[in-house]
Write a structure and sequence with these properties.
With 91 residues, the chain is mainly alpha-helical. It has five helices and no strands. The protein has one domain: Homeodomain-like (Arc Repressor Mutant, subunit A, Orthogonal Bundle). It is 76% helix and 0% strand.
């Protein structure tokens, strides 16, 4: 039988910081969502569902939908430069 202290400790542990997510993975999911729905059409609910994170995590990591969009576009631009680098082509 659990005593009150065990219950309080287990509750306190669940309130802690959630596991970290991979930034590149969530940006990739956001980029795909923006691609499919457009900026205006991609709701926070759509984005967080695709990214597998909560709205709180989205805002904590990216501050706003606008900043998330910019970060996703920066990642997209980076993908092109990696491709050209692999091919030995100038950008």
């Amino acid at each position: 039988m659990k005593n009150r202290r065990d219950v309080e400790n287990s509750t306190a542990r669940r309130r802690g910081r959630p596991p970290a997510f991979d930034r590149e993975t969530v940006l990739s999911a956001a980029r795909e969502t923006f691609w499919a729905h457009g900026y205006e059409g991609a709701s926070i609910a759509d984005l967080t569902a695709a990214m597998g994170i909560t709205p709180q995590s989205l805002y904590a990591a990216f501050n706003s939908k606008d900043d998330l969009y910019r970060a996703a576009m920066e990642q997209y631009r980076g993908l092109g430069s990696d491709t050209f680098s692999a091919l030995g082509e100038p950008i």
